[in-house]
Specification:
- The chain has 293 residues and is an alpha+beta fold.
- It folds into two domains: 2-66, no CATH class; 76-292, Fumarylacetoacetase-like, C-terminal domain (Fumarylacetoacetate hydrolase, domain 2).
- Helix content is 16%, strand content 32%.
- It is built from seven helices and 20 strands.
- It has helices spanning 37-41, 45-48, 50-55, 84-89, 162-165, 223-233, 283-292; strands at residues 2-8, 11-18, 21-24, 59-60, 65-66, 76-79, 100-103, 108-110, 115-117, 124-125, 128-134, 150-158, 160-161, 181-183, 186-188, 201-206, 209-215, 241-243, 265-270, 274-282.
- A seven-stranded mixed beta sheet has the order 7-6-18-11-12-14-8, with no helix packed on it.
- The longest helix is centred in the C-terminal third of the chain and has 11 residues, at 223-233.
- The chain starts with a strand and ends with a helix.
């Protein structure tokens, strides 16, 4: 199943997608709720609504304004180095354990919303990533069982402010500027993708300019291995988000560096899932637009 959480007249709802059309699941059952958490809590709910979905009116997918798939994720955990060629272009040694960092809730926004270049830096970079939406939580999850803990996959553009990222070994500042991590808009359940979401083309671009292009086969740590490793030190909970790292081609490694500029729209795409598009705006213009609302 492909889902989108988004805004239409009447509020935020969960939609089941069928090509260019979508059915409002939240209108069919109060149990669905305004984001994916209702379905994460009871994945069988959508099966019980099958007859209602078939008979329900649809809306055009293009008329839905995307919202975050999970409105308030408890934890957002990201892999920093998971593609060998990306590790090399960054000048890092090949790690024996994944480089993990966390994002806060203010740093992420829905696909389609502006990605904000902060006033303190022009070095806003792009990073297309596969993202896991955790379905079943747990601690000390065995790698062999880990994929059973995945509810769906989506797309992240892990916008990174590079000079602030390099101010500290922990990367936290550069990865947590407000409105720099675009998520969504489509969430795809594992049954519609290859096991572990391997073998998928992953690409970022601005217009006709291809910035990154690789394959999820190139990930050093698989989805299953990553879930297992993370669950060693923390309890994963339903609705948590895990970003699986970016392939080579990021802006800071190009000569000259290729930073995102206001007025551009950057697209991050994972095959079989969809495109996460974000217009780039300067922080002062973004603040003025918010104030005018």
């Amino acid at each position: 199943m492909k889902y989108m959480v988004g805004d239409v007249a009447g509020g935020t709802a969960v939609f089941a997608l069928n090509g260019e059309n979508a059915v409002n699941l939240s209108a069919l059952s109060d149990k669905v709720g305004p984001d994916l958490m209702g379905l994460i809590a009871d994945p069988s709910l959508v099966d019980s609504l099958a007859a209602d979905i078939a008979a329900a009116p649809s809306v055009a997918t293009k008329d839905i304004t995307p919202a975050l798939p999970v409105a308030k994720p408890g934890t957002i955990i990201c892999l920093g180095l998971n593609y060998v060629d990306h590790i090399k272009e960054g000048g890092y040694d090949i790690p024996e354990y994944p480089a993990l960092f966390m994002r806060g809730k203010n740093s992420i926004m829905a696909a389609g919303k502006p990605m904000v270049r902060p006033t303190v830096s022009e070095k806003l970079d792009y990073e297309v990533e596969l993202m896991v939406i955790v379905g079943k939580g747990g601690r000390h999850i065995a790698e062999a069982d880990a994929l059973n803990h995945v509810f769906a996959y989506t797309v992240l553009n892990d916008g990174s402010v590079r000079d602030y990222q390099r101010k500290t070994h922990q990367w936290t500042p550069g990865k947590n500027f407000d409105n720099t991590g675009a998520v969504g808009p489509i969430a795809v359940t594992p049954d519609e993708l290859p096991e572990g979401a391997v073998g998928l083309k992953i690409e970022s671009r601005v217009g006709d300019e291809i910035l990154q292009s690789a394959n999820t086969d190139d990930m050093m740590w698989s989805v299953a291995k990553t879930i297992s490793l993370i669950s060693v030190y923390t309890t994963l909970e339903p609705g948590d988000l895990i970003a699986m790292g970016t392939p080579p081609g990021v802006g800071h490694a190009k000569t000259p560096p290729r930073w995102l500029r206001p007025g551009e729209t950057v697209e991050a795409e994972v095959e079989g899932i969809g495109i996460c598009a974000s217009p780039i705006v300067d922080e002062k213009d973004f603040a003025a637009a918010v104030a005018a609302q």
